[in-house]
């Protein structure tokens, strides 16, 4: 922990989904933890750490004060419905604060992010015994074919595949998804029903220790769009949260963690007090209030050899031990 700089920089964890797995599988497994694992992680954090509101951590960071190596803040990205149905009851029971960064265009909707569609399509392709080697080269580059085959056949994590597709651009992502949907017979709904929080649920959570920030309006990759479009993403989301909750969204989480100096300046101009990213590494720049690193928590980050919760493994994960051993890059 000392080697990784904790105590000088904030330890901020971020989740996406907390789910009840159906038949032993996880939706978009890179982004989900089971409710059982989450409960064990929360119990460990409550026993071994000081779980603080994110705003308190940011305030201490801004004042140049030293954070204890036992201080931690919890955050969630996107605003999935299961944040309310699975995560919130556990947080409330233990009296722990958290911050959820909302993608406001998705609130109260049954829309899906493209990576959730991709996870379902891969599972359908496995069931349909899709020929992953016979995909057309005009849609699937050799690199995409290779990473897609590894993710599909080996049931591996999707991080390598989603990163590969992101590098191809949104147009190519849509073409890949459309082809896979046709190939596995899919215009049927992937997950019928509402997928994201409602404003009523958000207001209930707000009254019980949960604060809310912005994750943009549509989850656009801000480095890929022009200044006017970035400003709209930032301001529309901020205004919706203000109108719905009668409170200011102080914090912003960069979609996909992608930002540069231009985007950072626009976030500051939009009136946000701070911004968090998805990179876990700490550096002298980690005290920049608009480039605050966070550490993602996934299902496997707290599992031991027999696939059971391991306090030692989770402690090593939080302390950055696997980073130092070059075993983590996400």
Account of the protein in words:
The structure is a single chain. The protein is α/β, with parallel strands linked by helices and 330 residues long. It contains twelve helices and ten strands. The strands form three sheets. Strands 1, 4, 5, 6, 7 and 10 form a six-stranded parallel sheet that branches. Strands 2-3 form a two-stranded parallel sheet. The longest helix is centred in the last third of the chain and has 19 residues, at 227-245. The chain is globular. The model has no long low-confidence stretch (mean pLDDT 86).
Features:
single chain; 330 residues; alpha/beta; 10 strands
Shape: globular
Share of helix, binned: 40-55%
The biggest sheet amounts to: 6 strands, parallel
Following the backbone from N to C, one meets helices and strands in this order, namely EEEHEHEHEHHHHHEHEHEEHH
Rg from Cα: 20 Å
Helical element count? 12
Find the structural class using helix and strand composition: alpha/beta
* Weakly predicted, low-confidence segments: none
How much of the sequence lies in strands comes to 5-15%
State mean pLDDT (0 to 100 scale). Answer: 86
Number of strands: 10
Our measurement of the CA-to-CA distance between the termini, rounded to an integer number of angstroms, reads: 18 Å
What is the gist of this entry?
This protein has about 325 residues and is an alpha/beta fold.
Write the layout of secondary structure elements.
Layout: E1 12-15, E2 17-19, E3 32-34, H1 35-48, E4 50-51, H2 54-62, E5 71-78, H3 82-94, E6 98-102, H4 114-127, H5 142-153, H6 159-168, H7 170-183, H8 199-206, E7 210-214, H9 227-245, E8 251-253, H10 261-269, E9 274-276, E10 295-296, H11 311-319, H12 321-324
Parallel strand pairs: 1-5, 1-10, 2-3, 4-5, 5-6, 6-7, 8-9
Helix pairs in contact: 1-3, 4-7, 5-6, 9-10
